[in-house]
Amino acid sequence: MLTLADGVRGRRVAVTGGGVVGLLTALFARRHGAAEVVVVDPTPRRRAAATALGLTAADPEAGDLAVELKTRWRHGPGDRGADVVFQCRGRSSDLALALRLLRPRGTVVDLAFYPDGARDVRLGEEFHHNGLTVRCAQIGRVPRGTAHAWDRERLSAETVDLLRAEHDAVTRHLITTCVPFEDPPALLADLAARRTHVLQAVFTF
């Protein structure tokens, strides 16, 4: 039977984007047996949240992260880098970085959306020379041929199991803001004006 572990067990995994989607993806990978998980995000508070969750965090602006991870994750001569990268940040520069982090014939699973296109992605470099794969993983889809095994009920059950296992850590480190239900307009105005940073807001009654 297909399981979530099939794609990550024993593998070295990078997650680009340390928002809620990225952090939950990293927790899924760790829970299902990834050999190592690194969360990549330039925002200090997001990296702090990843660290608090027991994950490894990396700043992509601190140096050449592709060189760093490929030095650390050696599989053999000419074979270095992440087995799989989950791309969870809606910027094409992060998709370009995700491709650079991969070992030859590795896979990017792309959970992001690019409203401005993907101008930073250069398919003539790592993508072409290393035989890489990019898989789209938008909400509501499962890969062709697996729909019989992964219906909405089973996917939901996996999410509930993760949240039960990680409840205390998720509550403590992912929910950063609680506001009364009548106050969302003020919060949204602050977010739009970049006066505040929120990882996950919860409205209280």
From TrEMBL:
Residue span of the signal peptide, if any?
none
Q: Which residues are in the Alcohol dehydrogenase-like C-terminal domain?
A: 21-138
Q: What keywords appear on the UniProt entry?
A: Metal-binding, Oxidoreductase, Zinc
* Domain of life per record: Bacteria
Q: Kindly list the cofactors needed.
A: Zn(2+)
In terms of Pfam families, this protein maps to: ADH_zinc_N
Family listed: Belongs to the zinc-containing alcohol dehydrogenase family.
What this protein is called in its record is Zinc-binding dehydrogenase
Upper lineage is: Bacteria, Bacillati, Actinomycetota, Actinomycetes, Pseudonocardiales
